[in-house]
Predict the 3D structure of the following.
Amino acid sequence: MPAKTPRSVPKPRRKATSSTSRALKKAKKVNQAKTKGRTAPFTSKQVSTFYFKCVLDDNGEPTAQFVCRCGVQRRMEPNTGYTNLLGHVFMWHTNFVAEMTSASANTGTLVGFIDDKTHKIFSWIDMVLSCNLSFSFCETEAASNYVKIGSLSTDSLVKYMSLLVREVETVIGSILPKSFGIIFDGWTFRSEHYVAVFASFRHDGKAQNILIAMAPIIDDNVDDLTARSHVKFLDTILSYYGRSKANIAYIVGDNCAVNGAVANKLQVPVVGCARHRLNLAVNLLLAGDDDLLNKVQKLMCKIKNSLLVSAKLRRKTHLHPVLNQDTRWSSTFDMEFLCDDDEDELAACMPTRREEKQLKAILVNLKLFESTSKKLQSADDVTLLDVRDLFDALIAQNPEVTHYLRADADIVKSPGFERACVNVLLGRESTLSPDEEAMLDPLAAETSPPPRPSEATSDDQGFAADALERARRLRQSTSRYIGQVAVITPTSNVVERFLAKPKQWLAFTAKR
């Protein structure tokens, strides 16, 4: 039997030589480099994602078809790159870089065009700062298990935060004008005294209050808390932004002796906090009713300390006892408001009828001051003229508070400067004296601010809002000073709100 002829086996294809393989890889890299160069400053993925959207099937599952903004469809298989999509963009959307840049500017965000590493670093910094987390949190096991933005070491986090601070300092230094105001206040935690400093000025037609420092005032260069040390501290801080103490046009702070001494050493006017003056005026107004207020305070303490009375109060009303605080007169307002609303439930231990009428009269007066206080706290665009209007309205209702609220009160450190600012806002620039003009010269500007939009009036702020609205209807002002004078903040609220956050957090962590 003849032997079977073996089937012919196809010869295997000759493998590409090493030189051919290297040439193909080199050509591929060249093509990738060309594509990357054509899409700069964006990546291929960012360009493709901006113009193309994946087409879904009837079940909502993604397909290999992608539709462009112009309606053209292109096919892209998984893991094959963006060549097919980019070819359409390069041919029919030649101005894609300008379009993408314009789109990011209109939306106010570049999130869609930021690479993953930059987005990861930003996300970690944002989360750590917003949530008051420790810098080492990014290396904890909980972070690796539950945070899906990618891992980051503590050293890298601190490194990029330091770089971010430098960039922010550069940006702030570039927009700081030649002359600007300083708002600052201090806070002591345990044995460390911190000072928060804000720069106040007009930029792009808007008032800007930007934090430029939050640091201990005592360090290797400063060894005490005197006015001289505060001046040296401010000069050191401003040097990081290419400025010095000579660029300070005015300061805003509490009506204390140290702030006045700082202003004298800087040879600049000081604007005392209007809320501080308002608090002193309220304390003066309530000084004659101490016995009655102490009686109400004892009533509140009795209700709060008695579990049985507190339980009955909770069953009958949503109100709760409020204790008076020496540093917050608004607690007196809340305390009187409770007595006025909860008359039936507390009839057995309430003050006499005569005292009730007296308390209601006090409550009416406190409502006016409460409305003014809320206006000063909530509105960021309150001017020195607004404060003058509010204080004059309060003086008309309660002449007893003239001692603290009048324009030339003893507590006002720079009455001439505040009077000059009010005259500018009133359109009376021609009445300025040479000394007043000299104080305002650093604030001279060529453009006037746009008209302020009308604000909604709430019931709590009815008195303050109505008083300001009546005054604003009577005048319109244009002046070469008004651009910067209109943004002088009459309170240090921005610093107090900022310091409230570390106060709350450090007080919480210190007890753990």
The longest strand covers residues 192-203. Confidence is low (pLDDT under 50) at residues 446-453. The longest helix spans residues 353-378.
